[in-house]
Amino acid sequence: MLAQSQTTILSVFKLFLLPVGGGIPAGVLLAHQKGLAWPVTTALYLVSDLILALVFEPILRLLAAVARKVPFLARLAAASKALSERSTRHFSGTGAGPVALIMIAFGVDPMTGRTSALAAGYGFCAGWAVAIAGDMLYFAVIALTTLRLSAYFHNPDTAMLIVLAGMFLIPMGVRYFRPRFPGVAPVEEQAN
Fold it and tell me: Residue 66 and residue 57: Cα distance in Å, rounded?
């Protein structure tokens, strides 16, 4: 029994370490199918985020150091910082505060959330705290959606495909339809 649960934990953990795609839905469905408790499943995802922080931070710091010395990369870093500030204005009104950074990590991924946090001046612990908070919110939404759809369709593959399609199509739909709603002015117009 113990060997089986260790195998299940390791399998779920490996799925959560996948940086893109269906790692969350597949891991959640496997954990649910094998009877792994939801707090353990959530803790495994949190640990995968912590490992991501330890692996990605040195790469991010190296890129930041190189960007200071290479003019093209310095311009790219400045453009990235300006883009981050512009895209987070509608979350907080004054640039990249913690809530805005959490929403970036929720809406994009924790690496982008951490990169934005670094551009906003957040250190290692605070920057990763907001990035992981946003990613854990994303995990909760995807996990709950996956489990509910799996119960409704009684087919984990169908549930996972619907969740994966939603992960890609819903943001595209929001970007397409947002400008078409009358009465909702872009952020730049609301400031004037």
Answer: 14
- Name the region of 83 (left: φ>0; alpha: ψ -120 to 50; beta: rest): alpha
Residue 24 contacts residue 139 (beta carbons within 8 Å): yes
Q: At what angle do helices 23-33 and 124-153 cross, to 10 degrees?
A: 60
Virtual torsion, Cα 81, 171, 53, 139, nearest 10 deg? 150
pLDDT per residue over 18-72, tens digit each? 877 678 898 999 999 999 999 999 999 999 999 988 988 888 788 878 888 888 8
Q: How many CB atoms lie within 10 A of CB 161?
A: 15
Contact (CB, 8 A) for 133 and 101: no
**Spatial contact of 23 and 138, defined as CB atoms under 8 Å apart:** no
C-alpha span between 61 and 150 (Å, rounded)? 41
CA separation for the pair 113, 149 (Å, rounded): 28
Mention every residue, 6+ apart, whose C-beta is less than 8 A from residue 107.
134, 171
d(CA 52, CA 49): 5
pLDDT in tens, 115-160: 888 878 888 899 999 999 999 999 999 999 989 988 888 888 888 8
Of 129, 94, 88, nearest to 107 by C-alpha is: 88
